[in-house]
Structure formats: structure tokens, C-alpha cells
Design goal:
Elements lengths: L6 H6 L5 H10 L2 H9 L5 H7 L4 H5 L4 H7 L9 H9 L5 H8 L6 H9 L5 H7 L4 H9 L9
Length: 150
């Protein structure tokens, strides 16, 4: 009895090569691409390309801590759509939200997504609520925003 290895199986396998994972990220279906985003062997470049569509999988990738040690500006170099998706994720932690939201040179839409995230510390929500309209809108959407911020 022979077994056929599917693209999804390959995407889930931590021994799949970086090149093959990159191919699967470009050609696979949604489930396969999500599995590539979660695979600890996926390259940082491929992860950055998948972050807009699968931010939760990227943020839960077991290799992310190592990537951040090697590339401290990893998130800041991502395309804007990816940074917005990452900032919207329930898996974005306080440290990451501070990094993305405290950078005044970051696009307003990124800072607005940070302001809207329920995990964003209140002091940062207050700070963001004083910035551009798109950022203030995010602060107003945050379920934890204090009344004085609203």
C-alpha cells in the first residue's frame, strides 16, 4: 500500500526545504499556505509574504522568536498590509504592539490597527488617540479604551 504525500502534508512537515515551502506559499491553496506560515522551517521572507493573509499563523510560528533575534526589524520591514494584519491579530502581544504603534513614521493605518487592538496597553491607546484621524478612529474602536479617550 503506497501513500501519497499531499502539498498540505509537505507544508506541515518541518523537514520540508525552504525552497519547497516558498513554492507552496505561492502556489498552494489557503490551507496549504496557512500551514507554510506555521511551519518553523519557513524563511523570514516567505513568512513576511504570508503575514497579510495568515497573521495568526505567523505570530504563532515556533521559529518567530529566533527570527526576531536575527532580524529585530522584521515586522517593521513587512509590507503595510502585513503590518496591519499583524496589528489586528489577537495573538499580537504588548511588546509587538508597542513596537508597531510607537513608531510615528509608521503609516497611520498601521498605528490605527494597533490602537484598535484589545491587547494594546491603555497608555499606548491614549497616546495614539492624539494622532492622525485614522489612528484616533482605531483608538475609538478599541473595546478597552477609557471614556476620556473616547
Amino acid at each position: 500500500m503506497s501513500s501519497t504525500v499531499t502539498a498540505l502534508d509537505e507544508a506541515r512537515d518541518p523537514s520540508t526545504s525552504l525552497d519547497r515551502l516558498s513554492e507552496l506559499a505561492k502556489q498552494g491553496d489557503s490551507d496549504t499556505r496557512r500551514a507554510v506560515a506555521a511551519n518553523p522551517n519557513t524563511s523570514p521572507e516567505t513568512l513576511a509574504g504570508l503575514a497579510a493573509d495568515f497573521p495568526d499563523a505567523v505570530l504563532q510560528n515556533p521559529a518567530l522568536e529566533l527570527i526576531l533575534l536575527e532580524q529585530p526589524g522584521f515586522f517593521e520591514r513587512m509590507p503595510q498590509a502585513a503590518r496591519i494584519a499583524i496589528a489586528d491579530s489577537e495573538y499580537a502581544d504588548e511588546e509587538l504592539l508597542r513596537r508597531l504603534g510607537s513608531n510615528r513614521s509608521a503609516p497611520a493605518r498601521v498605528r490605527g490597527a494597533v490602537a484598535a487592538n484589545k491587547n494594546t496597553p491603555i497608555d499606548l491607546v491614549r497616546e495614539l488617540a492624539t494622532q492622525a484621524v485614522a489612528v484616533r478612529v482605531g483608538a475609538a474602536e478599541n473595546p478597552n479604551a477609557p471614556k476620556d479617550v473616547l
